[in-house]
Amino acid sequence: MKLFEHIRSPEIPYYLGWLNYWSAAAAKAIGFPDPARDAEQFKRARRTASGGWVVQLTDAPLDLDNPAHLDALKRAYERFPEIGGRSAP
Questions:
Q1: Which of 47, 51, 55, 70 is 20 to 30 A (C-alpha) from 11?
Q2: Among 7, 11, 18, CA closest to 84
Q3: What InterPro entries does the database record attribute to this sequence (predicted)?
Q4: Rounded CA gap, 80 and 8, in Å?
Q5: Tens of pLDDT along 37-57?
Q6: Domain ranges of the chain
Q7: Cα 70 to chain center, whole Å?
């Protein structure tokens, strides 16, 4: 992961958490939503009145000692390599 100063676009989130807010510009920059890819994994996502998204990764707050939570976080990072500046320029 890169420091936020080295991420190519200010719209791209720096990291993922249990509950994430992505503006419309951020969602567009990372390619969210893609109905074919995101329907099941991000079923808790809700669109805001301003066009942004609130994306909740798990039902309960993230517990990294819970294998299901850790898996959800890993899959989200795999889905969005732009987050954290991990994709190739």
A1: 70
A2: 7
A3: DUF5953
A4: 14
A5: 999 999 999 999 999 999 999
A6: 4-79
A7: 14
Distance CA 51, CA 53 (A): 7
**Cβ-proximal residues to 19 (8 Å cutoff; 6+ apart), any chain:** 54, 55, 56, 57
SS3 55: strand
Q: What is the mean pLDDT of residues 19-26?
A: 96
Kindly report, residue by residue over 68-83, the tens digit of the pLDDT: 999 999 999 999 998 8
- Supply the pLDDT for residue 85: 66
Cβ contact 30:13 at 8 Å:
yes
Angstrom distance (rounded) from CA 49 to CA 64: 31
Distance from first CA to last CA of the chain, Å, rounded? 13
